[in-house]
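Tokens as discussed.
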């Protein structure tokens, strides 16, 4: 089994622990082990390689040992992709530092999909077509916004067609249940992961995620 020791890196271990928790709470719609799928789609591999990538994807294969501060996989070929979580985690960390030095108002963003606010800020969510016309305006008060959409970076499917880069871990294919999803909650990392999960689940995921994360606000734009 592959094994990584994180002694002296409790923040990294806690990041992975939270990612596993979110994978379970979203029934695997968010899954940080999609590394094999991203690699397979990015290089337009064969259907056989896609099947191998699907077998090597699954958050339940991540084994964390809190006492030893280690992470390992239960099979060879697994890998992590923190693209739907790591950026928000970095924003949370930066915001914590600013608060520690007394900053009372700031808006931090990690590109177009992740925003965290210290104090009150009004932000607009761009439409799924990538235009400047917003689909919503959101007031953030010491919380965060995560946006997920299939537009932007694309991959090619096995037929050579363009497909969105957000993967559905359950099918091994690009997510196609919604045009855009966004989430407002206290943590930028959680907002990133939950917006990805909502994009994968689509509208049927709204009551599920709202019940499990009552302090978050969920919004989805159907296709």
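Sequence:
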């Amino acid at each position: 089994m592959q094994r990584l020791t994180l002694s002296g890196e409790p923040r990294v271990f806690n990041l992975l622990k939270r990612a596993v928790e979110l994978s379970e709470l979203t029934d695997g719609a968010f899954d940080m082990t999609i590394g094999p799928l991203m690699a397979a789609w990015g290089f337009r591999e064969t259907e056989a390689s896609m099947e191998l990538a699907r077998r090597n994807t699954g958050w339940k294969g991540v084994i964390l040992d809190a006492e030893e501060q280690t992470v390992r996989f239960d099979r060879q070929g697994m890998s992590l992709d923190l693209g739907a979580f790591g950026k928000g985690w970095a924003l949370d960390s930066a915001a914590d530092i600013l608060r520690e030095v007394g900053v009372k108002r700031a808006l931090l963003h990690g590109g177009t999909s992740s925003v965290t606010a210290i104090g009150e800020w009004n932000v607009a969510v761009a439409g799924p077509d990538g235009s400047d016309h917003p689909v919503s305006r959101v007031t953030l008060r010491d919380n965060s916004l995560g946006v997920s959409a299939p537009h932007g970076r694309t991959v090619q499917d096995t037929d050579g067609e363009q497909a969105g880069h957000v993967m559905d871990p359950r099918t091994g294919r690009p997510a196609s249940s919604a045009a855009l999803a966004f989430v407002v909650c206290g943590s930028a990392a959680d907002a990133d992961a939950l917006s990805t999960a909502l994009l994968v689940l689509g509208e049927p995921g709204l009551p599920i995620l709202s019940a499990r994360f009552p302090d978050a606000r969920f919004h989805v734009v159907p296709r």
